[in-house]
Amino acid sequence: MIQFTNINKTFQDKEVLKNVTGTFVQGKCNLIIGASGTGKSVLLKCLVGLVKPDTGSIQYDGREFTNVQNDTKQAIRRDIGMLFQGGALFDSKTVEENVMFPLDMLTKMSKSEKYDRVNYCLQRVGLDNVNMLKPSQISGGMQKRVGIARAIAMNSKYLYCDEPNSGLDPQTSILIDTLIKDITDEYNITTVVVTHDMNSVLSIGDNVLFMYKGEKVWEGTKTNILDTNIKSLQDFLFANKLIREMKAHNK
Fold this sequence. Notes:
Blueprint: E1 2-11, E2 14-24, E3 29-33, H1 40-48, E4 55-60, E5 63-64, H2 70-77, E6 80-83, H3 95-106, H4 111-124, H5 140-152, E7 158-162, H6 170-187, E8 190-194, H7 198-204, E9 207-212, E10 215-220, H8 231-238, H9 241-250
Parallel strand pairs: 3-8, 3-9, 6-7, 7-8
Antiparallel strand pairs: 1-2, 1-4, 4-5, 9-10
Helix pairs in contact: 3-4, 3-5, 4-5, 5-6, 6-7
């Protein structure tokens, strides 16, 4: 479980996060949604320690993360897996080397143990026989799956996914959503997904947090998000073609 309380962040007199409080539940897909510029990516960066909030508290299963010694923070970071928006794979490394990278950096596993773990993670995301290929030799969807394999290589307790479906076709997006949901359920991890894709919200949104102008203005699930009477959330939802079509069909 990830808990954050009264998170505030200002950049050059611009208040980006305003007293944001919430809880991300273990074993669930927790989504942060909102239009561009609403603070969702800054919140994610605060949660993983890339940005330090001005005030507020972040806890991982009761362990304070914001105002602690660096060694304590590093111990929590070792439990965090991260899927970056563009995949963030090393172009000069093979698929195998990309997945092995955190194992090389953060563990004392033997070479054979690392290879076993890499092969297991690649098989888990449905990728066989691509170990020696470079990222440029595989599709965008396969690159995202390599990114997921790398994110779970350390047996992560917490998985962050930043716009995992960005740049993907609808069919591949569904595959990535399904994979994220399956991994969350299988390993009982706390997954946090930043997205503006309503297909993702309606398929894997166990817990959804809506950001607007730096504030959390709504929190709920995929089952009740369409019943909201909050104007900013309605505007966000009905700007989406999928939601308009669903509403029209239900009339």
